[in-house]
Amino acid sequence: MVLESRRGIVVRASSSPDSTDPSDPIAPLRMESPTGQFLSQILISHPHLVPAAVEQQLKQLQTEWDTEQKKEELSASGTDLVLYRRIAEVKANERKRALEEILYALVVQKFMDADVSLVPAITPSSKNSSGQVDTWPSQEEKFEQLHSPEAYEMIQSHLALILGNRLNDSKSVAQINKLRVGQVYAASVMYGYFLKRVDERFQLEKTMKILPNGSDSEGSSIEKAVREDIRPAGDYLAVSSHLEVSSWSGGFGNRIKPSRLRTYLMSFDGDTLQRFATIRSKEAVSIIEKQTEALFGRPEIVLTPPGTVDSSKDELIKISFGGLRKLVLEAITFGSFLWDGESFVDSRYHFVMN
């Protein structure tokens, strides 16, 4: 029996054996387009068929696009042309929404394949304001298996810079500003996307035995590139520059020990680094924003005259440091899966701009 909640799809038969509540949502974000709703049903009933269903939907989108292009060539002038352009604009927005939800379905399906449960929406008004983050198993061993050893070493550095001396403290509970937690989550998704993109190239060059000799002298330039270039629009993402977490570059500071992947990054020139630090599609940016809002709600952001974010009126949530660690690991993995999904879709329906 399938029910749709306000935020996400709810399944009576839980998708994960780790889940304790049979009505746990498989994903916090509700998909609303016809394509998204179709894929939602596939996720619930036959998740292993999602890639095939996605290919079918992409073929349909390509057919619609080709038909519109032919109509544009034959379109009349004057009033008819204005009307046609308006219809074409509406259809383009529908395709964008469909592509976003195709990407989201692919990400969710990869979590389900890995038997990793996505954290449900976190509601500060509930008795346990961190939702089920603190009650679910950590799943850290499963997360580790989803990344290469070199990438996971960078992820540990990212965690160390976020949690500080609380890295190994999983039980202590803190009250944290909801906006700040949302910023950490969104920034970690983008970091996971960046890390997967770099690691994919690193693993290829390692296999081909053509890795360059790096240097640790350019750490500050890498941190600057990642901070400045990944600034998409959106309530959580637009204020990511105010996030007081120096881990955006995954541990490029002097406090973090060198790793093979970090040394490899040091060999990049500025232009290459900026390219790797950029999310390729608007659809992927939108998914990051919507996933974060589905988890934490839409924040009330007030900018003070100096240009800083005043979050004094924002809600606080209680969450353990173990729960925060779990959120960050999920976010990084979400970003990694988003890169994979975007690449899969673009190989069949070219929507990523060069």
Automatic annotation (TrEMBL):
InterPro entries: At3g17800-like, DUF760. Residues 14-24 have a biased composition (Low complexity). Residues 1-28 are annotated as: Disordered. It holds the Pfam family DUF760. This is UV-B-induced protein At3g17800, chloroplastic-like. It comes from Gossypium armourianum.
